[in-house]
């Protein structure tokens, strides 16, 4: 594992992956959006409002995915003191927060015409809002210490503690009566969503994932460059 | 084994043990809160007097087929969970998805005669997504099980 701890090796790897992830983002998001918004069928109940789903569902998945990545990176950072793991967790947080926010906003826009309300305090919506607060709390805690290392450590503990929320979000619709509908795609007995809608949804998901990888690599690269500048300045002062 | 390696192992055990403890604690708390986290009660719950009298609560279930009667601004319909029925009266704007055979969640109170007076009606969507042609084809071939049964099974009280 420590082979990748080396920032130079990581930068080489990141530069090799980046063109592909950028191409995948542009291709999948471009074709997926056109397909979802123009060529996929309207729903038998919801009509064209169903198209919000093509943003809402991948955003929700990425909100959970980015948090899971952040928690795993935080665990690696806490246990093995892996410097790149700290940077990965730090880079993942704002991206995941934006996905979660997008999920909440699109869900609200869908809820008004379909349910008849912008917001209800049911288990799924509330746990997703808590996820957003966990992201915000993580970022705030990181910057709340004079010593950045201590802030990073405290934030990593918070990320791990908050991870209990992830399975709660996923299974909230099964465990409790909620206004939010149960899972359509990842469920026992196969998806309850027509292939004509499922395929563009999956294309959008691939696009979101590639976008996340692109942003994550760019952000880690920026963090590595930032650390380099800081150490150069220090040697200038002390050397 | 070197000292650095044992320290790493110890940190690993600490993190794993901490997560296990936290997970157990959360599971226990959620089980204890099971009843309080319910977003709505089913007609069966109401019949079993699970809801205190004169209390505002949410009622959830399916709008019974053929039960919707509109008189002026007032709508009357029956909410069912395939086990028990409850008549509902509501004056106001209904959401787009409100229709017979679909799920609803209504907030309000029971009156003396056992009619649920709703202050707010929300439509509940099920997990099925399909184009209208597919829905038509399913209905024609008699394989239409989707919306109704799925929504009903999800609303059945768990305990």
CATH architecture of chain B, by name, is Beta Barrel
The whole-angstrom Rg of chain B is 23 Å
Helix content of chain B: 25-40%
Question: How many beta-strand segments of chain A?
Answer: 0
What is the count of structural domains of chain A?
1
Question: N-to-C SSE series of chain B?
Answer: HHEEEEEEHH
Largest sheet of chain B: 5 strands, mixed, barrel
Describe this structure in words.
- Chain A is an all-alpha fold.
- Chain A has helices at 7-39, 53-80, 83-114, 123-142, 148-162, 165-175, 195-238.
- Chain A has one domain.
- In chain A, α2 (53-80) packs antiparallel against α3 (83-114), α3 (83-114) packs antiparallel against α4 (123-142) and α3 runs antiparallel to α7 (195-238).
- The radius of gyration of chain A is 20 Å and the shape is globular.
- Chain A starts with 6 loop residues before the first helix and ends with a helix.
- Residues 146-159 of chain B have low confidence and may be disordered.
- Chain B is an alpha+beta fold.
- Chain B has a single domain (43-155), classed as OB fold (Dihydrolipoamide Acetyltransferase, E2P) (Beta Barrel), CATH 2.40.50.140.
- Chain B starts with a helix and ends with a helix.
- Helix content of chain B is 35%, strand content 26%.
- The A-B interface holds A 41-46, 49-50, 53, 75, 78-80, 113-117, 120, 122-123, 160-161, 163-164, 168, 175-179, 181-184, 187, 192-194, 196-197 and B 8, 11-12, 15, 18-19, 22-23, 26, 30, 34, 37-42, 60, 93-98, 102, 105, 120-136, 146-147, 150, 154-155.
What distinguishing features does this structure have?
heterodimer, A: 239 residues, 77% helix, globular, B: alpha+beta, five-stranded mixed barrel, 4 helices, 6 strands, elongated
Produce a short descriptive summary.
With 239 residues, chain A is an all-alpha fold. Chain A has helices spanning 7-39, 53-80, 83-114, 123-142, 148-162, 165-175, 195-238. Chain B is built from four helices and six strands, in the order H-H-E-E-E-E-E-E-H-H.
């Amino acid at each position: 594992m420590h082979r990748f701890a080396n920032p130079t090796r990581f930068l080489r790897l990141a530069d090799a992956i980046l063109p592909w992830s950028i191409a995948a983002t542009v291709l999948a998001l471009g074709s997926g959006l056109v397909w979802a918004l123009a060529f996929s069928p309207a729903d038998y109940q919801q009509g064209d409002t169903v198209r919000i789903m093509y943003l809402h569902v991948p955003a929700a998945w990425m909100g959970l995915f980015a948090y899971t990545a952040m928690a795993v990176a935080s665990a690696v950072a806490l246990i093995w003191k892996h410097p790149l793991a700290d940077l990965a967790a730090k880079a993942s947080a704002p991206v995941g927060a934006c996905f979660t926010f997008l999920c909440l906003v699109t869900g609200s826009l869908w809820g008004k015409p379909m349910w008849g309300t912008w917001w209800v305090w049911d288990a799924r919506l509330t746990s997703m809002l808590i996820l957003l607060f966990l992201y915000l709390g993580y970022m705030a805690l990181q910057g709340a210490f004079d010593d950045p290392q201590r802030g990073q450590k405290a934030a990593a503990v918070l990320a791990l503690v908050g991870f209990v929320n992830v399975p709660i979000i996923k299974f909230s619709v099964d465990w409790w009566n909620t206004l939010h509908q149960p899972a359509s795609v990842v469920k026992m007995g196969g998806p309850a969503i027509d292939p004509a809608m499922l395929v563009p949804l999956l294309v959008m998901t691939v696009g979101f994932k590639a976008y996340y990888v692109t942003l994550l690599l760019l952000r880690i690269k920026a963090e590595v460059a930032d650390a380099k500048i800081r150490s150069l300045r220090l040697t200038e002062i002390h050397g | 084994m070197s000292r650095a390696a044992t320290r790493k192992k110890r940190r690993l055990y600490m993190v794993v043990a901490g997560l296990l403890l936290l997970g157990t604690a959360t599971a226990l708390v959620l089980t204890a809160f099971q009843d309080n986290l319910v977003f709505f009660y089913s007609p069966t719950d109401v019949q079993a007097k699970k809801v205190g009298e004169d209390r505002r609560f949410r009622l959830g279930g399916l709008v019974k087929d053929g039960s919707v009667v509109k008189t002026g601004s007032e709508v009357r319909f029956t909410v069912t969970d395939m086990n028990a029925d409850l008549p509902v009266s509501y004056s106001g704007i209904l959401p787009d998805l409100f229709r017979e055979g679909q799920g609803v969640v209504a907030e309000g109170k029971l009156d003396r005669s056992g009619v649920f007076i709703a202050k707010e009606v929300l439509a509940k969507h099920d997990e099925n997504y399909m184009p209208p042609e597919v829905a038509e084809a399913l209905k024609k071939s008699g394989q239409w099980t989707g919306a109704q049964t799925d929504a009903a099974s999800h609303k059945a009280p768990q305990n």
